Amino acid sequence: MTTTTQGGAVLAGKVVAITGGARGIGRATAEAFLAAGAVVAIGDIDIELVAKTAAEFGADPDAKVIGLPLNVTDRDSFATFLDAVEHELGLVDVLVNNAGIMPTGLFVDEDEAMTDRIIDINLRGVLTGSRLAITRFLARGSGHLVNIASLAGTQGLPGLATYSATKHAVVGFTSALHLELKEHGVRVSAVLPGIVRTELSAGANMPKWITPLTTVDPEDVARAIVGTVLRPRPLVTVPRRLTAIIKSTQLLPYRAQLLVARFTGATTAYAQADPTLREKYHRRLRGE
User: Fold this and answer.
1) What is the pLDDT of residues 89-122, one digit of tens each?
2) Given 163, 254, 270, 281, which residue is catalytic?
3) Phi, psi angle pair for 209, to nearest 5°
4) What pLDDT sits at residue 7?
5) Can you tell me the distance from the alpha carbon of 176 to that of 126, in angstroms, rounded to the nearest whole number?
6) What's the Cα-to-Cα distance from 221 to each of 197, 204, 225, 228, 250, rounded to whole Å?
7) The whole model's pTM is what?
8) Domains and CATH numbers, the chain
9) Any residues with CB less than 8 A from the CB of 68 and at least 6 apart, and which?
10) What is d(CA 240, CA 32) in angstroms, rounded to the nearest whole number?
11) Residue 163 among the catalytic residues
12) Where are the beta strands (DSSP E) in 45-85?
């Protein structure tokens, strides 16, 4: 890893805190910020893995990174995490609310405890982290909050009803917060990835022709996150071409939207996902 890539001069010494930072998009984002010269704190509920990930990054003498335990559903845990980051690294300049889960299946079959868990992590965790961060940012008139949403935050996807609900909420919340804070020196952005090649998204059942248009690597999302910190925008899709696809589809009559959804595989992506690949992820969610 080097510190000579994207935004190194601008982000040198900036303190970035990332939730869900031990794997997937969170890990890739930590690496991208480190490569841009920032100092990074990753928080994760998986205490052993977050320590291991931080140690792997820390093997690079140019990288300054710490790994800390974090349960985003617990306000005290989140506040303790941010306090520890500021004690170890300095005032937080950027908070990336990345932690999230995506169990799949029909809503009628979803256990109520899992419904609550999705809401608590994907939405309440974002609200909690945002409140704690912007209170600190407003006190000094600077800072950037980046909330990770999803393509599922722009349309309802069968098999992802509760997840879609939380990501719609994150998009709306972030949009409103951006307008509330833009005159106070505090930046707020939502990043909306398509299907990301991680365990969380594994097993999507989509036509082969659409995959290159909607599927990205964690590193692609990470670059977009760093990019929106360098050039702030309220909403960023990954890949960028999704913006045009989303907007053009939303202008169509309802019946035409359904046809597009079927043609692109949106109706089957997770309603008929690969059960073997999804079960591996679900087993981890259940702690098995």
Assistant:
1) 999 999 999 999 999 999 999 999 999 999 999 9
2) 163
3) -70, -25
4) 52
5) 14
6) 10, 18, 6, 11, 24
7) 0.92
8) 8-285 (3.40.50.720)
9) 41, 42, 43, 50, 81, 84, 85
10) 18
11) yes
12) 65-69
